[in-house]
Amino acid sequence: MEGVLVTLFGLCIGSFLNVAIIRLPKNESINLPASHCPTCLHPLAWYHNVPLFSWIFLRGKCAFCKSHISFQYPLVELSSAFLYAFIYFHLANTLQALLIASVFALLLALSIIDLRYKAVPDALSLPALILSFCTGDPLVSLQNGLLFMGAFAFLRFFVSALAKKEVMGEADIIIAGIIGALLGIKLGLAAIYISAVIALIVFMIIRKKGYELAFIPFLASGLLLTWLFETQILHIMELIYE
Q1: Which phi and psi (to 5°) does residue 66 adopt?
Q2: What is the pLDDT at residue 210?
Q3: Is-contact 148 183, C-beta < 8 A?
Q4: Cβ contacts of 178 within 8 Å, gap of 6 or more
Q5: What is the pLDDT of residues 124-172, one digit of tens each?
Q6: Which of 48, 81, 90, 101 could form a Cys-Cys staple with 10, CB 3.0–4.6 A?
Q7: pTM of the entire predicted model
Q8: Long-range contacts of the stretch 89-94 (C-beta < 8 A, 24+)
Q9: CA distance 30 to 23
């Protein structure tokens, strides 16, 4: 029963993330105006806002103007619910599971915003950073997070000076802090390495001149993969060191 409640909570968080994804990049309030159809602007009733189920019952169309509702809405809600359910069943501590799942849910929203708008709102990234400091020993998490943020800030300054242009966003520094806080030093470095490899592969596939690659999704992916396969990655690192 607790697992079901956690999953439903994740579904509701996904609904909130959809609002944040649509409104924050446009500097709009996530509270006002109330939920409405983006096409006809008609206010939605509460039963039009039930996460996932409303989209299914409405068959992906507005109840008033019948315009199509983006598939992003159920996809984000399902992804958020899956994150909360999976992490809950992966960890024994419910509170820790909720905190970590919330961090990954916020990273999901940040990744979509970065891909779509090339922007990373502080209203989502800073809460994710603060939550990451609370997922383990707060002092240790804070220390590791600040260490990674400092290292990324130095890297940003150094590489930007060499390239004579900005090559890394300030948001990348915040995500680096989240990686350090959640994983620690050794696994955090592994996560950044995995992120860079995935980004390089995607960049080689796209090969579009002047295309600005959003890096937040890759940092989030590297973090998630490292967190999921922590034991295996540590074993591989031990074999390499030997």
Answers
A1: 65, 15
A2: 62
A3: no
A4: 103, 107, 128, 129, 132, 145, 223
A5: 999 999 999 999 899 999 999 999 999 989 888 887 777 676 667 788 8
A6: 81
A7: 0.90
A8: 89/3, 94/2, 94/6
A9: 6
